[in-house]
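Morning, I've got a small favour to ask if you have a moment. You're getting the sequence in one-letter code plus the fold written as tokens. Thanks so much in advance, here it is:

===
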Amino acid sequence: MKKSVAIIFGGKSSEHEVSIRSAKNVAHAVDKNKYDLLLIGISKQGSWYRFDTFEIFDQATQINDNSLPTEAEPIALISEAGRPFFFSLRGHTKSQVDCAFPVLHGTFGEDGTVQGLFKMMNLPFVGCGVWSSAAGMDKEVMKRLLAFDNIQNAKYTLITPQNRVSYSDLVKNLGTPFFIKPANAGSSVGVHKIKTEDDFEKGLNDAFKYDSKVLAEEFIQGREIECSVMGPNASPTASLPGEVIAHHEFYSYEAKYLDENGAGFVIPAKLTPKEIEKVQGLALKTYKVMGCEGLARVDFFLKQNGDLYVNEINTLPGFTKISMYPKMWESSGLSYTHLVTKLIEFGFEKHAEEQKLMFTYLDEL
């Protein structure tokens, strides 16, 4: 009997639209001979809906409670006798779910919140767990963890509403230009390259729209190299690296998703065997330090002198048709469908290992 896999997309995030694009590709790539699919969309308001056909991906660029497609069925994730189900709020029927594949980018999907829900519901899921998702999403926490293990990354200054820092002080510490970015956001949302004090005020105000913590980060001149990683934390594997060549000022949201010519990709990246080994080794080390399970993409800056800096780790990387994570695996010999199958299998395996742990104490005495 085939197991059911729920592809979960949308969500209360600035990356809602990107999530839907990613989910479309994942849903099409799932091996239908092995798994039955459940398509679960989360609206911008946080409501959960089930959709019966792939048409949702062509009908809607976003899911909004005020303008729902007619086939949207409101549902809730419930647990009964320790088993997870989707409960129809309309028909009052239950649908068993065996595994969740959250294709949720950004807040309330990539930050450990939905992963905690899955764990409470005893539902196997694809990707990193609660703390590694949360730590990977928060760029300040990520930088602290990387620095503790002597993994080189860009200098930064933390800015909060209570701890504002002047432009002149930032220039003294970080040089110019520098970047402004929300601590908890992805897809370059709220990211700005700062060259002047006027840039700084505008960029800071925009970044604060997406998070109450903002990083000012030094600009590192170098090639943008990325590497896909997957597998259990104890023994992950790394893909061949790829390179992003931004045609905009930097690899912005517009360059990633709105402008078809916003960036070029070289996969695999034109690196020497020694450079490839260095990138893969640091990607694996970063993955382990961050406690990742299942999948992640590690992004780097490679300077002309050979120094390699970790820019960030993405614990739920994009799966759109131009996304680097699946493309780097394809260049490494792993097709999109086989990649998705492996990720689902890792989800089941991780859950099976966790079930060996004790969750009671007094009953055993």
